[in-house]
Specification:
Blueprint: E1 4-7, H1 11-23, E2 27-33, H2 40-44, E3 47-52, H3 63-73, E4 77-79, H4 89-97, E5 101-102, H5 107-114, H6 116-124, H7 141-151, E6 155-159, E7 169-171, H8 177-192, E8 197-201, E9 207-215, E10 221-233, E11 236-242, H9 249-266, E12 270-279, E13 282-289, H10 296-303, H11 307-315, E14 332-339, E15 351-352, E16 355-357, E17 364-368, E18 375-376, E19 383-391, H12 394-407, E20 409-411, H13 417-423, H14 427-431, H15 438-451
Parallel strand pairs: 1-2, 1-4, 2-3, 4-5
Antiparallel strand pairs: 6-7, 6-8, 9-10, 9-12, 10-11, 11-14, 12-13, 14-19, 15-18, 16-20, 17-19
The chain binds ligand MV4.
């Protein structure tokens, strides 16, 4: 096992990784920007190193500064968390070249999954169901036209180097194709330095359901079931739950096993998530994330497995501590992302937390890095905590979530807590009858009602 891990991140995920390291008897090194010198993860870690100014590009994205900090402190591994450098293949390569273990998959797997065309080909060849679409990058309009008439309209053009919803263009009919193709290629080139685009059948009202997997260096791969992440706003997830309100145990076992086998075929190492769109009982692969995800706690709560502990252990060369047969799913878990934002306009609300009280009690977990008197800096993501609530069934969890939200005190800033309080009262939410566009529509309705 590692002796010392450098945590190349901030906020709640730096705390989450620190906690796993502590329980494994591993020393931790925090790195931080000048804006984060009073951050909780810096206080908790055994050692800390300031790696640069507030702007992320000068600190949390500064590869040379982070690798230097690891060398100076003698860390034998680096945990990248999520965001920042977590899916940067060059970072994984450089860390390895310095004789330090990158706690994550190989740079090659990160690179393949970062190229959405290569990713589709890699997993499609291993039996994962794909959204029908062009087999590769579109060379020209003629090729796009041929592909689109094969798959039908509406169709969606996506950037190979995109992902997370950036750079997508909807094509409702053939007359729009040429213009949308050009726009997509130009935008992709400007945004990613790569103008390659591909085209897919557009799914109108799917759910976003993702499968968690974990793979060790001994050839063992397990799936840990699904998370339903359909409730999102502008490509930012807002609330996630496990199990999905719509999947049967048979469907879970089938897509889980298909995913598990494919990931085994890839020779993948570490934790990862295979993202699907789910419509009319069918799964369609869209992307694979090669990192630990924000919403991993809902899987931990329904399986009882510590994903970060396993992730670190796997990176150290140990076999998984359990087999697929050992994995059972118990009860229900829901996570709410608490953002320091106006709950109506979503304008960020950094500043001092004047008073803080975390919710607690049976079935309540609050993953956060905030404390009484903490100053939320304006330079980073506005997510300041995650409220994860779990219990025997979804109905109980919703009631528990409501009372946990009521208990939470975060004075001095605006948070998205009021949004969740309203959401929990909605009939569609209560029955689980939602899809990826549902929240956007619900927010528009709330807005109208509020103005009247
Ligand atoms: C799609 C789609 C409909 N049809 N692909 C957006 C994020 C990126 N990961 C893929 N995305 C989508 N791909 C096809 N063929 C709709 C979306 C999409 C979406 C997907 C998941 C969660 C939220 C979303 C919000 C808008 C669009």
């Amino acid at each position: 096992m590692f002796k010392k891990v450098l945590i190349a991140n901030r906020g709640e995920i730096a705390m989450r990784v620190h906690r796993a390291c502590r329980e494994l008897g591993i020393q931790t090194v925090a790195v931080h920007s000048t804006a984060d010198s009073k951050a909780m993860h810096v206080r908790l870690a055994d050692e800390s190193v300031c790696i640069g100014p507030a702007q992320a590009k000068d600190s949390y994205l500064n590869i040379a500064a982070i690798v230097s900090a690891a060398e100076i402190t003698g860390a034998d591994a680096i945990h990248p968390g999520y965001g920042f450098l977590s899916e940067n293949a060059r970072f994984a390569d450089i860390v390895k070249a310095h004789g330090i273990t990158f706690i994550g998959p190989s740079a090659e797997h990160i690179r393949t999954m970062g190229d959405k065309i290569a990713a589709k080909k890699a997993v499609g060849d291993l039996g994962i169901p794909l959204v029908p679409g062009s087999p590769g990058a579109l060379a020209d309009f003629e090729e796009a036209k041929a592909a689109a008439s094969q798959i039908g309209y509406p169709a969606l053009i996506k950037a190979a180097s995109g992902g997370g919803g950036r750079g997508m263009k909807l094509v409702e009919e053939e007359s729009q194709l040429e213009e949308q193709l050009q726009a997509a290629q130009q935008e992709a080139l400007a945004a990613f330095g790569d103008g390659s685009v591909y085209i897919e059948r557009y799914l109108k009202q799917p759910r976003h359901i993702e499968i968690q997997i974990a793979a060790d260096s001994h050839g063992n791969v397990v799936h840990l079931g699904e998370r339903d992440c359909s409730l999102q706003r502008r490509n930012q997830k807002v609330l996630e739950e496990a199990p999905s309100p719509v999947l049967t145990a048979e469907e879970r076992a089938k897509i889980g096993e298909t995913t598990r086998k494919a990931i085994q075929g890839l020779g993948y190492l570490g934790v990862g998530t295979v993202e699907y769109l789910y419509e009319n009982g069918e799964f369609f692969f869209i992307e694979m994330n090669t990192r630990l995800q924000v919403e991993h706690p809902v899987t931990e709560q329904v399986t009882g497995i510590d994903l970060v502990r396993e992730q670190i252990s796997i990176a150290a060369g140990n076999p998984l501590s359990f087999t697929q047969e050992d994995v059972t799913f118990t009860g229900h878990a829901i996570e709410c992302r608490i953002n320091a934002e106006d709950p109506r306009t979503f304008v960020p609300s950094p500043g001092r937390i004047q008073e803080f009280h975390a919710p607690g009690g049976l079935g309540v977990r609050f993953d956060s890095a905030v404390y009484d008197g903490y100053d939320i800096p304006p330079f980073y993501d506005s997510m300041i905590g995650k409220l994860i609530v779990f219990g025997d069934n979804r109905e109980l969890v919703i009631a528990r979530l409501r009372r946990a939200l009521e208990e939470t005190v975060l004075a001095g800033i605006n948070t998205t807590i009021p949004l969740f309080e309203d959401l929990l009262d909605d009939e569609d939410f209560k029955t689980g009858d939602y899809h990826i566009h549902w929240l956007g529509e619900w927010l528009a309705k709330q807005e109208e009602a509020g103005e009247g």
